[in-house]
Amino acid sequence: MIQNFSDFEYIIVDGNSTDKTVTIIKSFEPEFAAKNITFKFISEKDKGIYDAWNKGVAMADGKWISFLGSDDCYFPDALITYFEKISQLQNNENYISSQVHVVDENGNVMRTMGKAYQWKNMLKNMNIAQVGSFHKRELFQEIGPFSLEYRIVSDLDFYIRGKDYIKPYYFKEVTATMENNGVSNQINKALKEALKVRLKYNYDSKLTIYLNHYITFLKCYGGKIKKGAK
């Protein structure tokens, strides 16, 4: 709502919340209408975040699609920045990403993440900032929807499947924040799912896949072990 840009549609997919979520969502409708922003929402049972994202893609009318979780937030100039970058694309790029700040529950920046999409890197470590990045809608027709086989890393699966389709553009600016307490913060489960994804596509030898998995495990847990030992 605080974006310095209004030529976009805002879609909320709620998983049939039983608290006051729907009432809160509806309370924003007049503000969207006043700013001439297309606003859509549904509230129904889903099979997790990726099912919700697939529903959002089906509801979207725009040429470019982005995803935010409930604890993610764009900076005020994020959409106008993306719009300007998209307007300058010259090589038929269909995926554009930047950087995000990972913050704690008080909004303190813990780290900055986000590198350029490179398919080979997806086989080792998902180091792109998926939060807030933009996908041309045709990508979902070419690659297919997010798989419901995974609850935490289906975006990794999507970007690996996108090997022959994704034409990336990257700019090194921070455009959003994400809290460090979402589903993907379940590190152990995420690592197990990521290993399952990489073994499924078999782009490397099993030895290489397991070795990269172990290295990622050490990167994720090494800092915690050192911190706990102090």
Automatic annotation (TrEMBL):
Signal peptide positions (record): none
InterPro entries: Glyco_trans_2-like, Nucleotide-diphossugar_trans
GO molecular function: hexosyltransferase activity
Gene3D superfamilies assigned to the protein according to its UniProt record, in alphabetical order: Spore Coat Polysaccharide Biosynthesis Protein SpsA, Chain A (3.90.550.10)
Pfam family, one: Glycos_transf_2
Top-level taxon in the UniProt lineage: Bacteria
Domain spans labelled Glycosyltransferase 2-like: 4-106
Descriptive protein name: Glycosyltransferase 2-like domain-containing protein
Record lineage: Bacteria, Pseudomonadati, Bacteroidota, Flavobacteriia, Flavobacteriales
